[in-house]
Amino acid sequence: xxxxxxxxxxxxxxxxxxxxxxxxxxxxxxxxxxxxxxxxxxxxxxxxxxxxxxxxxxxxxxxxxxxxxxxxxxxxxxxxxxxxxxxxxxxxxxxxxxxxxxxxxxxxxxxxxxxxxxxxxxxxxxxxxxxxxxxxxxxxxxxxxxxxxxxxxxxxxxxxxxxxxxxxxxxxxxxxxxxxxxxxxxxxxxxxxxxxxxxxxxxxxxxxxxxxxxxxxxxxxxxxxxxxxxxxxxxxxxxxxxxxxxxxxxxxxxxxxxxxxxxxxxxxxxxxxxxxxxxx
Length: 280
Fold this sequence. Notes:
- The protein has helices spanning about 5-15, 80-85, 95-100, 115-120, 120-130, 160-175, 190-195, 220-230, 250-260, 270-280; strands at about 55-60, 70-75, 105-110, 130-135, 180, 205, 210, 235-240, 265.
- The strands form two sheets. Strands 2, 3, 4, 7, 8 and 9 form a six-stranded parallel β-sheet that branches. It has a three-stranded parallel β-sheet with strand order 1-6-5, with no helix packed on it.
- It has about 280 residues and is α/β, with parallel strands linked by helices.
- It has one domain (about 50-280): Glycoside hydrolase/deacetylase (TIM Barrel), CATH 3.20.20.370.
- It is about 35% helix and about 10% strand.
- It starts with 5 loop residues before the first helix and ends with a helix.
């Protein structure tokens, strides 16, 4: 057996355990640390299914969780309005979207598949802007109940397909992450419609404040109706259709600064639903 001198033993001690005595003084190579896995995107919040497993319905957020309000805009276009669009009628409203961007107002746009087909670049731009989220307003904008503002009616056996077709269009035009939220055309629904859409896995989103901008000609009246109705957690329904709601942009220019003056914070529907889940 070879006996190490005291000098060698002392040198080994000074090496602080980086190498074994009698071996190379270079520290042992360490394997590279594995790259962190990218965080999986969290799923958008939804509500639990309603009684008997039917689609849940969301109307507003908690009243006691701060002064938040969600502005929502329906981008309506009924499937049979194609000839009117071909003749030059406009169902989009780019000025309204630019106003929301300039005012830095988050919003949820409930878009029909037919609208996204007619205005694919706008649909894609809205869907890719972090200020907005795109939700489903059906493909056809046909009603899901009878006697709904004169709209044609979707047969019960086609209701789910109509909703899923809209999502297919959103993906086809480049909307990256459409939300699992659905607004009934005209806001009309019944238990039969809720049951028919259960397999689609959506949360139905209604509202508690009607903006009254559809076919309105007085923006001040629209603004006053919104301001009079808003409470903490409110969901406001307005429209993003120039042909049917030409005063909305001007009304928004009044509503937004006034609600901010009152201490309200604008949020998307997903935040309100997430807050409701947290309070549940």
